[in-house]
């Protein structure tokens, strides 16, 4: 049994090493990917209760030279640990400005949501870089929502709040992504300049068939209403979910039921068709 235990520990170490090596390779490939044009942005529509498009979330895609896709849930964490998320985040911001200009030109001036990493907030030049990106493109900051995850708010609360206020003064709006999954106290809700809460798709998955999941969604909707915050419910896949939300506060919705994440050109074509 002792030998088996030692053997188990050795196997564990081997697999840890293999995992660390994979991360290293992935990190190297990712920095080359930006230079090689393997990264692109997809956009996923957000609609109001009547199904009218009101915005879109920008989601990063990595297609390797061999045609295979690396999911963001795999490469974003690597980008966070290596620091690559800083140039990537800046690139996303510029892509968002270009996307907004293209949407305006096509007659569809949608509000665009961008995922912003905690690492970006910790960068001293963050606010200046954001301002420069908007100045260069001439796009109004009011056109953008920065999505930040709740986990971010636990650390560096004062620093983050200060930067949020500076960016909010420029006109940028803030959304709490994956709301309810971060185990943080709710005190921050009234201290930060917030515009929106996003109900995580893990809560929507259980709605409306499961009483507990449904209760959580209803509680978030009621709280947002009291705080005067807009809500987007993500992961809407079924008519039953949409009907439930139409009867409960009518938040905006994002999910496969309405639209998959699409390349900009495909999204514009869809908007032009009026669907
Ligand atoms: P997220 O911000 O929570 O984004 C929503 C995710 O849900 C997206 O996954 C989207 O494709 C997926 N989704 C949308 N509708 C549905 C639905 O009806 N059902 C289900 N099951 N899923 C749906 P995606 O594109 O794989 O992105 C995963 C995560 O990667 C994002 O989660 C976000 O945290 C991160 N990410 C993606 N792009 C960026 C980026 O540009 N910057 C940063 N920092 N993070 C990003
Ligand atoms: Ca998001
Ligand atoms: Ca989310
Ligand atoms: Ca998420």
Automatic annotation (TrEMBL):
Keyword Transmembrane: yes
Highest taxon of source: Bacteria
UniProt entry keywords in alphabetical sequence: Membrane, Transmembrane, Transmembrane helix
Residue ranges constituting the EAL domain according to the UniProt record: 23-275
Record bears the keyword Membrane: yes
Protein name according to UniProt: EAL domain-containing protein
């Amino acid at each position: 049994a002792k030998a088996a235990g030692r053997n188990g520990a050795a196997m564990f170490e081997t697999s840890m090493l293999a995992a660390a090596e994979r991360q290293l390779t992935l990190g190297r490939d990712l920095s080359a990917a930006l230079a090689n044009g393997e990264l692109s942005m997809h956009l996923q529509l957000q609609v109001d209760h009547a199904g009218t498009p009101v915005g879109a979330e920008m989601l990063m895609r990595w297609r390797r030279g061999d045609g295979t896709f690396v999911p963001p849930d795999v490469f974003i964490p690597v980008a966070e640990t290596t620091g690559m998320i800083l140039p990537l985040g800046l690139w996303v911001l510029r892509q968002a400005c270009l996307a907004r200009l293209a949407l305006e030109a096509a007659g569809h001036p949608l509000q665009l949501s961008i995922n912003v990493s905690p690492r970006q907030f910790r960068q001293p030049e963050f606010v200046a870089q954001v301002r420069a990106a908007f100045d260069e493109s001439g796009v109004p900051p009011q056109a953008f929502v920065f999505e930040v995850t709740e986990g971010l708010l636990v650390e560096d609360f004062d620093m983050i709040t200060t930067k949020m206020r500076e960016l909010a003064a420029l006109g940028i709006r803030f959304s709490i992504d994956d709301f309810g999954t971060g185990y943080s106290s709710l005190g921050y809700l009234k201290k930060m300049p917030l515009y929106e809460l996003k109900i995580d798709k893990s809560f929507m998955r259980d709605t409306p068939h499961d009483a507990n999941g449904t209760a959580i969604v209803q509680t978030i909707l009621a709280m947002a209403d009291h705080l005067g915050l807009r809500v987007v419910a993500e992961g809407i896949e079924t008519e039953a979910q949409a009907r439930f939300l139409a009867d409960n506060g009518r938040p905006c919705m994002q999910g496969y039921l309405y639209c998959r994440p699409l390349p900009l050109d495909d999204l514009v074509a869809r908007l032009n068709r009026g669907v």
